[in-house]
Amino acid sequence: MSQYVIAIDQGTTSSRAIVFDHDGNIVSSGQKEHEQIFPKAGWVEHDAVEIWDNTREVIGTALSKANLTRHDIVAVGITNQRETAVVWDKTTGKPVYNAIVWQDTRTQSIVDELAADGGVERFKQKVGLPLATYFSGTKIKWILDNVDGAREKAEAGDLIFGNTDSWVTWNLTGGTDGGVHITDVTNASRTMFMDLETLSWDDDILAAFGVPRSMMPAIKSSSEVYGTVHTSQLLREVPVAGILGDQQAATFGQAAFEKGGAKNTYGTGNFLIVNTGEEIVHSKNGLLTTVCYRLGDAKPVYALEGSIAVTGSLIQWLRDNLGLISSAPEVEKLARTVEDNGGVYIVPAFSGLFAPYWKGDARGVMVGLTRFANKGHIARAALEATAFQTREVLDAANADAGVDMEDLRVDGGMVANDALMQFQADILGIPVIRPKVTETTALGAAYAAGLAVGFWKDTEELAKNWSEDKRWEPNMDADERDRQLRLWKKAVTKSMDWVDADVR
C-alpha cells in the first residue's frame, strides 16, 4: 500500500491541504479562501472559526480527490501565516476576538509606548526582532486591553494564545477535548517573546507586555510527534508531527539546509530567508534574526530574514479595490501592453515599510504620474514594486553575510509570472531559479512531519528531491539598472513620515 504525508498550509488568504508522495510530488490538494476583514483603515482580521472550518473541508477535498483514507497517511505537517494572533477560551474553544493578521497596524501606539523605554530595538538582542506592529506580541496585548473581560479571563488562566499553527493543531488534536496547546520554535520566534538562545519564553518581556505566561503554548521542535488527530476528525489517529512557519517551511521545502542557503517566497508579501547555520547572526542592515528550523533534539538552525509586507496583496488590491483587473493572472497581460513603467513607481507601504526600513509611519504612494501614464503602466509598476523591494532586502542580506549571492531560488504563487521573474533577474543582476515543485511551503511542512515518523531518512534524502524547473538570466544594462534603482529609492522616501496625530 502506498503511503503519503499531508500538509495543512494555513495561509493569509486561504487554507490548503496538499498530499505529497515520497518523491516530494503533489498527489492531490484542496483549497478554500477565507474572508479578509478590514474594520478600519490599517486593521486586518480573519475569522479563526472560519479558518478551522475551511481546514477540515480542504483535508476532505484532498483525500477524496486521490481516493485516499487516513490509513494512507503516515503524518500531518502544518505550516501557517506567522504573527497572526488568535486568543481563545480554552473551556469553550471560542476565540474572544477575530484573529489579528500580521499586516495589521493598529498596535502602533503600543509599539510607541514600549519603545519609549529603550527604543524599537529594546528587545532585539534577545529575540532578534525590533518592536513593530508586525509581530504577535503587540496584538495579544491589544486584545487583552480592548476586549471586555479578556484580561480578567487571561489572568484567571482561561484564555490561551497561538499563531494559526497553534489554533489548527489544538482543534485538530481535540480542542476542548484534550487538544494539544503547542507551537514550534519558528513560530515562537515571531512573537517577540522567545529568547533565541534558550528557545523559551522570556518572563521579563512577557511582563513588559502585560501578557500572562499561562496563555503561551509549549514550545516544541519543528519535527517531532506532538500528538495524534482526534477521533472526531477524518484523519483520526494520524500523528501530527511537523510545524513550521510558512517562510521557514518554504526554506525547508527548497532544501536550503546548508549555511548560506537562501530562498525568496512571493506570496501575499515577500520573504527572503538566508540560513546562517547554528550561529545567531544579528543584522546590521534591517533584517530580522529568526529560527530557521529545529529537528527533534538537534541544535536549532537560525536564519536572517527580509520581510516585505505587500507584494501579491498589491495585485489583489488592483483587482478588488480598484477593479483594474478581474483576476490576478491578468496583471501580466496588462503589464505587457506597455514597454516600460512610463516613469510610474508604486511603493505599497499599506502596513508601513518592513525590511530594511522598519518605518511604521509610512503609507503607500504612487509617484511619477503624468498624462502619459495608463493602466498598463500601473500594472507594470505594481509588478516591479515586488522586484525592487526584493532587491533591497537582498542587498541587506549580502551586506550582513559579507558575500554576494550568486543566484536566487524562488517560490510562491507569483513565480508563475514570467514578466515579473525576468524583471526580478534584471534588477538583481543574478539568475533567478524556480524549482519543479513550487508549493515549497506545504512541501517543507510535509518534509518536517515525514522526518519525524521515519518516512524520510534525513535531509540529504530530501535534498535529492529538489530539481530545477526554469531559470531567468539578467539581460538589463547595468546603467539602466542603476537608474531604475535610484528612482525606486527616491520613490520610497516619498512614502515615509506620512502618519501623524491627524492621519490614521
TrEMBL record:
It is an enzyme of class 2 (transferase). Inhibited by fructose 1,6-bisphosphate (FBP). ADP binds at T12, R16, T268, G312, G413, N417. Gene3D superfamilies: 3.30.420.40. Keywords: ATP-binding, Glycerol metabolism, Kinase, Nucleotide-binding, Transferase. It comes from the Bacteria. One of its GO terms (molecular function) is ATP binding. PANTHER family: GLYCEROL KINASE, SUGAR KINASE. Belongs to the FGGY kinase family. This is Glycerol kinase.
